[in-house]
Amino acid sequence: MVLRRAVMMALLMGSATGMGGVSAADKPEDAAQAAAESWLRLVDGGDYSGSWSQSASAFKGAVKANEWTKMAEGIRNPLGKLVSRKLKSREYSEKGPTTRMVGGKIYSWAGPGKCVTIQYDATFANKASAVETVIPVPDPDGVWRVSGYSVR
């Protein structure tokens, strides 16, 4: 069965999980990729609730914890375990999106503008070929945190 689902989710990477934040003072693409990969480890481990608790304030204001957990379970659980993930591309922009699709709903918020769109080629136990898109942004405290995610 071919799964084709996309969801944009905002999550934060922060030191509260012991992962350590990634400063905006680093090269944007490197800092964003480090944040994305830290976040992906949480999601790969099925720690959706923990991911939400570390989410960016803009996302927390748009999506409640229980909504995020249901969305993440609905997207990731059918895919099965991650088999492999390889960086496909990353692109820095000074003008990030101000809307995100989450579970079929579109949310709007004022963002910092800067973002890095990162794509990974991924293989899951139940899906041989997928593209994951992760969009980190620098939060007001200067730490890069994931603000968007989709898998197709």
Protein model, in words:
This protein has 4 helices and 6 strands. It is globular and about 35 Å long. It has a 4-stranded antiparallel β-sheet with strand order 1-4-5-6, with helices on one face. Strands 2-3 form a two-stranded antiparallel sheet. Helices cover 27% and strands 33% of the residues. It has 152 residues and is of the alpha+beta class.
Topology record:
Layout: H1 28-44, H2 48-53, H3 57-62, H4 65-76, E1 82-93, E2 99-102, E3 105-108, E4 115-124, E5 127-138, E6 144-151
Antiparallel strand pairs: 1-4, 2-3, 4-5, 5-6
Q: Name the structural class.
A: alpha+beta
Oligomer: single chain
Overall mean pLDDT stands at 76
The unreliable regions are: 1-24
* Major sheet characteristics: 4 strands, antiparallel
Order of helices and strands: HHHHEEEEEE
Radius of gyration: 14 Å
Number of strands: 6
The fraction of residues assigned to DSSP E strands is 25-35%
Outline type: globular
Strand numbers in spatial order across the main sheet: 1-4-5-6
- Share of residues in helices: 25-40%
